[in-house]
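Bug report (template v2)

What were you trying to do?
Predict the complex of my protein with zinc ion.

What happened?
Run completed; filing so the output is reviewed.

Input:
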Amino acid sequence: MPTKMPVKNKNGSILNFSRFFGREVIAFTATRGVDFTLKEGSAKPTSQQKGFLNKSAKSSFKHFPTFRQVHGRHVLLIKENSLYDSDYLGEADGAITNLPNLPLTVRTADCLPIFLYDPKHQGIALLHAGWRSSQKGIIANAVYLMKKSWGTKAKDLKVVFGPAIQECCYQVGSEFRKYFPKDVTKKGKNYFLDLPRVNRRQLTKMGIKRNNVFDCARCTCCDPKLFSFRREGEKAGRMASVMILKSKNLKKH
Ligand SMILES: [Zn+2]
């Protein structure tokens, strides 16, 4: 069973996960108040999109750096010099940073947004994990990069799974039994994938504590407040997930 924790749903416009992480982190997924689909050929959010995120985060950031999501396993390490006064960071499906006041952003409409926080080293990660990225082990890749960059230990990590298509609605082809032998269930003649469980399994394998993982367990396809590609098809919008490290607060070790 997922760790239970109330999700504060401010005016219904965001699912707020900040309380799970503590006061140093802002983390939320915007519901369908604003569509975060980015224009063809651009990975830059518009001023209206940025305005909504600033309002939700009670902030005034000029940039919400993001990347073109390609369903891979590549995770970017964002350092001071990788920012060129721009919102666009290249192709990737996740990013990590220990820079405070730098908002990480991913966009989803059924894929799983994953938030990771290392309180000891004050580092965060935000991932876009669809089935392809999950199969390729993007979460393990992110944890490895955090370890390599800051000395992160898996046992210290706190992780949140945002809204995604859940097993109730995620019907897949029979070939998925090969990709995810332990996480595909047969109901009647059909097969269903449990995407959060795939990622939870990978976290457990790396030594992340069960109680340090919070799964909001909201199904994008069941919940009309959320965008869902499965339910709405091509016209589905995208939800933005944002994670921000508020202050450095480095502790001595
Ligand atoms: Zn569902």
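What did the reviewer find?
Residues 166, 168-169, 219, 221-222 surround zinc ion (CB under 6 Å). Confidence is low (pLDDT under 50) at residues 249-253.
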